[in-house]
Amino acid sequence: MCSEQAQDITLTEEQCNELNLIIRKRSSSQSLVERAKIILLAAKGVSIKASVRELRCSRSMVRLWRRRWISQAEELSVCERLKDAPRPGHPPKFTAEQVCEIMALACKNPKDYGYILSHWSQNALAKAVIKEGIVENISQRQIGRFLKSGGYSS
Fold first, then answer.
1. DSSP one-letter string for the chain
2. pLDDT for 107-154, tens place per residue?
C-alpha cells in the first residue's frame, strides 16, 4: 500500500485566528467547524490518517478539504475558501433585481397602476408585474412565495 504524502499547508496568523474563531462560535455549522479543524490540523503537520482518527471523519473528506484549501486563491477569505462548491441544479428563474422590483411594486398603491383595489391581491400583483415588464410570466403562487419570504403575509 502506498503511503499518502499530504501537501503542506501554511497559514498566516490571521487565518489561524479566523479558523479558531469559526470553531469557537456557537453559530458555526458543524460542517464548517469540521473543515476548519481539518485545515488547522494540516497546518500543524498532522497526517491525513491521524486527522481522520482525531476528527472521526472519512479520509476522502480530509483529502478533499486539504486539496480545496491549497487550490483556492490566497486572496480569498477563510470563509470563502471553506464554502461548499456550487451545486448542480436549475438556475433561478427570477433575478434578484426582478424580485426587488416585484417587492417594491407590492409596496405601492394598486390604484396608481389602474386597479380599483385598496390592497394588492396576489393575482392582481402578478398581472401588474407582467404589465410593467418586470418579468414575462409569473404565477400568483410565485408572487405569494416572494411576499412570504419578504415577511409579508398574504
1. -PPP-PPP----HHHHHHHHHHHH-TTS-HHHHHHHHHHHHHHTT--HHHHHHHHT--HHHHHHHHHHHHHS-TTS-HHHHHSPPPPPSPPPSS-HHHHHHHHHHHTS-GGGGT---SS--HHHHHHHHHHTTS-S---HHHHHHHHHHTT---
2. 999 999 888 999 999 999 999 999 999 999 999 999 999 998 876 654
